[in-house]
Amino acid sequence: MSTDDFDVTAVTLKATTYGVISFLVLFNLVVLAFIFSVSFMPPSEFFGAPHIIPQNPTLDAWTSGFEELQDNLVNSFLIGLGTTVVALAISIPGAYAFARKEFYGKRAGFYAIISAMMFPYILLVIPIMDLWNDLGLYNTIPGMIIAYQVFVTPFAIWILRDFFAKLPTDIEEAAQVYGCTQFTAFLRVILPLATPGIVAVGFLAFLTGWNDFLFANLLTTGTGPVPAVPVLYGTIGGGSGERVYWGKLMAETLIIGTPPTILYLVARNYLENAFTV
Amino acid sequence: MTALEDATTEETDQTADATDSVASSETDSSDSSGGHIRLEGVRKTFDGGDIVACDDVNISMDGGEFVVLVGPSGCGKTTTLRCIAGLEEPDGGRIVVDGEDITGLKSKDRDLAFVFQSIALFPHMSVRKNIRFGLDMKTDLSKAEKRERVESAAETLGLEETLDRKPAALSGGQQQRVSLGRAMVMEPAAFLLDEPFSALDANLRDHMRVEVKKIQRRLETAMVFVTHDQEEAMTLGDKIVVMNDGYVQQIGTPYEIYNEPANRFVADFIGSPSPNLVECTVERTASGVTFASDFCRIPATDEQAAAVQDGQTVVYGIRPEYLSMRDDGGQFTARLDVVEPLGDRDAIHLTSGDTSLSAVTPQGEVSRDRNEVSVAMQTDEAWLFDEHGERIV
């Protein structure tokens, strides 16, 4: 290679790019490595001098963490799944109507739905608690699922509306000419083409149901269907200032983080399609 | 549906369910009795009546006929076609196919196949599934019959190799063929094609044009073809419907439209280069009737003379091929601006007075070096239009 080809700007740019990327990757990896390693340490070790390789690896944190979380993980899963199903059931037809149909108050309706997203939803906790109490939804899984719709569906409708609007109307008309009703054209042609958007929205809905802490903590009591995340809060000591069992905390963090990760890996191709423009 | 059944002459009894209006279309049979489409006073407006897309459209199309709707963009031709297909609901008028009023029917219940300008294939389905789509949705044919129809259409269109690919893997021409195949397998009463080749490049377009015409001849199925290209209309149509501003201007064979335009718009729209249209005043004197323009006086033929009054303003129209260049003895002289070779002919652009004229002559007949030519008109081929553009003679 001749030295004439040496381009200072290009090399600097490249070096900077890789520098920034390495920093960001390390920033995440180091933390993750510590979480991972601490989860295998006995208390005597993680309260000692920080080090990365456990000297006396133990599965205690994992077994006790898993035992504690078992039932709550099931609750989380049901809430996540329910949130997804209900959100899709509402937002697919809703988004399609906003994308393709003409009706009175369409614009106003759409912006009203979107503005619901701008609400800091901690404001909603008190009225929802009150209302759910009256309706018998407080401290129930359906109650949680419905509560999450307040901020999941606007977002879902927003994303899916753009998705449906981008699909050419000709394709739908072609389906109708060749034997579909508007509804079967929707099922056979529009839905399959909107799959990336639907998967993405479903994934985000599941994440909300799975990861949320505020509603999960405030709409359930210890006797009810508590999801996994509030239990994690309990492990930190609920802010009581007691000694924190870091090993268990890390193990539980990893346990709670695993299902969404797997789901992400499964849905990855769709998600990339959904968010590339 | 009953009307269809009456006309049905199934040569095979493979159609299990004879009451299925779609499957029992008679287009396979050798007589071209199906596909009579009649539009009666069809009107369609948009934006609550503010925009009139088409109005008072009356067209009668015979079975097996190749009808072309032609006009400038926005003239209502596509809207008319979409009304026939059921993709738009007319505000008024009736659409009758083979004696059955289908005006209120949904598109899926009409025995018509539509080919879209945008091709509109289903991107998530293989070519095979795309072509079979209508059969799957509309008919009860057995798998074997569907396969046979799909494969025979694919063979006609040269798509055998692509059947298991997705549309995105095909070229534009192949995609439009798939779209034709999707229509062909339906064996519909009529094909409706909305500028199907406008997305293709020129060579491919010519090629597809010939292919479509051949297919239409072979299937003997009515075809309604929309285009803005008057040349395409002339080459394809058995019958041409010229539209402008939402109204039908003239309906006729390509020769009728070309030779005897009903009004100034049709005269101007059809033919390339455009005909010469010159505003004249009628002068009736003892020696006869002449049309006086700013650059010449043209004697009227007997027929023309009988149809006009003294002092009337008319538009004198004549096709470029009826202007001939002479060394002398023409009706007027004109400046030679440009000679444009068109192959076996040359288009000659002239200016006389303030008026631009064009003529078509055999190749090389007029030298480019000349500045001025003497022009003679074959006056018995001229048209006269009144001040509203309506044809007088």
Automatic annotation (TrEMBL), chain A:
Q: Which UniProt keywords apply?
A: Cell membrane, Membrane, Transmembrane, Transmembrane helix, Transport
Record carries keyword Acetylation: no
Q: Which InterPro entries match?
A: BP-dep_ABC_trans_perm, MetI-like, MetI-like_sf
Its record classes its membrane topology as:
Multi-pass membrane protein
Q: Which Pfam families match?
A: BPD_transp_1 (PF00528)
Cellular component GO terms, alphabetical: plasma membrane
Q: Which GO terms describe its biological process?
A: transmembrane transport
Q: What is its main location?
A: membrane
Please report the stretch or stretches of sequence annotated as the ABC transmembrane type-1 domain.
Answer: 73-267
Per the UniProt record, which residue ranges are transmembrane? 20-41, 77-98, 110-129, 141-164, 185-207, 245-267
At the top level, the lineage of the source is Archaea
Respond yes or no to whether keyword Transmembrane helix is given for this record: yes
Compartments, record wording: Cell membrane
Protein family membership: Belongs to the binding-protein-dependent transport system permease family.
The identity of this protein, by name, is Carbohydrate ABC transporter membrane protein 2, CUT1 family
Automatic annotation (TrEMBL), chain B:
Q: Where is this region: Disordered?
A: 1-37
- Annotated keywords: ATP-binding, Cell membrane, Membrane, Nucleotide-binding, Translocase, Transport
Topology versus the membrane, per the UniProt entry?
A: Peripheral membrane protein
Q: What does it catalyze?
A: L-arabinose(out) + ATP + H2O = L-arabinose(in) + ADP + phosphate + H(+); D-xylose(out) + ATP + H2O = D-xylose(in) + ADP + phosphate + H(+)
Q: How does it assemble?
A: The complex is composed of two ATP-binding proteins (XacJ and XacK), two transmembrane proteins (XacH and XacI) and a solute-binding protein (XacG).
Pfam families in alphabetical order: ABC_tran, OB_MalK
Q: Which EC numbers does the record give?
A: 7.5.2.13
Q: Which protein, by its recorded name, is this?
A: ABC-type D-xylose/L-arabinose transporter
Q: What species is given as this protein's source?
A: Haloferax denitrificans ATCC 35960
Give residue spans, biased composition: Low complexity.
15-33
Family (UniProt): Belongs to the ABC transporter superfamily. Carbohydrate uptake transporter-1 (CUT1) (TC 3.A.1.1) family.
> What are the subcellular locations of this protein?
Cell membrane
**GO CC terms in record:** ATP-binding cassette (ABC) transporter complex, substrate-binding subunit-containing
According to the entry, every stretch annotated as the ABC transporter domain falls at 37-270
Functional note: Part of the ABC transporter complex XacGHIJK involved in the uptake of xylose and arabinose. Responsible for energy coupling to the transport system.
The GO molecular function terms of this record are: ATP binding; ATP hydrolysis activity; transmembrane transporter activity
Q: Which domain of life is it from?
A: Archaea
